[in-house]
Amino acid sequence: MGRNPLADFLLVEVLHILIFFPTRHHFYRVVTLALMIHLAAGIYLTENVAELGGAAYAVGHRIALHFGFVAYVLCTEGSFPNHWRRIRDEVDAGADADGSGNLPSNFPFTKKFWWMFDIAHSVRMVGWVQEPRGCLPPPPPPSRRTFLWKTFLKLIANFVLRDLLTLIFAQNPVFDPRVHDPTDGPETYLAAIPLLRRTPYVLAFGLWLAVCFKILHNITALVCVGLGFSSPTLWPDVWGSWGDAFTLRKLWGRTWHQTMRPMLSGLGTLVANKILRFPRGTNLSSYTQLYFAFFMSAVFHFAGEFMYERRMVYRSFRFFPLQAAAITFEDFIIFIAKRLVPKRFNPGNPHESWAEAVVRVVGYCWVTLWFCLTLPGYIDGASLAGNYTADRGPIARFLFDRWKLWA
Length: 407
Prior knowledge:
Radius of gyration: 23 Å
Distance between the termini: 56 Å
Helix content: 55-70%
Largest sheet: none
Strand content: under 5%
Number of helices: 13
């Protein structure tokens, strides 16, 4: 388009907020959405966007997420804007007899502005009536000072852990293209490691990804709560309990970050129950939602990959649908096992039953083995493109130099 893609991206960010202004005039949203599509298409088609480096992936990924979230808010469940309610608005409704003053479309302009800003940045829907409480970690207590102090300590710990993890990533042929020959293909990275020996690298990659998410979450929470923009209760941890990750369904549904959960769930329900008209609660409905959610995850990640490196654009369409297929297989095995295993051996209290402990150990091994099989096809192309290239941090460098000296 002849303009800086970052400038166009900032315009998309502004339009993404403005499209949620709580007005009932549909023409306003149609025009805003048309401008978003025009700008986004120009960004995706601009060749020099790759010059942004690693930020190109974030730009492409975030734009796709914006469109998904717009579709979720405007097309699912009740009509926009009055269907979407903040819990604090419900609590502070006051003595309004018919509740009309509590409808977003009837808010005064200033309150409409902040409502618009809130929903545009509420991908997890925390603090809204639509919050997915069954899959999110418990909210922190409301004490602002305690929250800021604990979050600051977590931020320091996460920075230290990320620094230490550079010992594994830097100058390692599993992740770092700088120690490879320029003619090496992606199959010479993690895929070149024998299956069982991949385990520490797979676990390290998962931990590194979790720490990166936590750092961003901690910084954003400190800013928003510290400046008084939001309550500590609106900032539950970005990750669930790793103890729940003994099946793929629980890993993806509880432990992994649930940033896209409301959006994927809402859009999946729209497709399964309203478009395809499968009855709610049936296997057809639930598995349609499952496969649709992973397909959309592939689309969102593909958008970032397309912006960053054209050579790795199809890896998401291999990886994410495979997760849905594996969950289907897993559900089938669990279904059969529950009917074949005698009742006296069924797991009881998870804190007391030895059977439950055995099931969990087997489950952790299965989940780890699955990612040892499938993760190379997902990350090796990105490793080749330099997506995980890192230099050792100051702590890791100090420890590495000490080990070399002692050796």
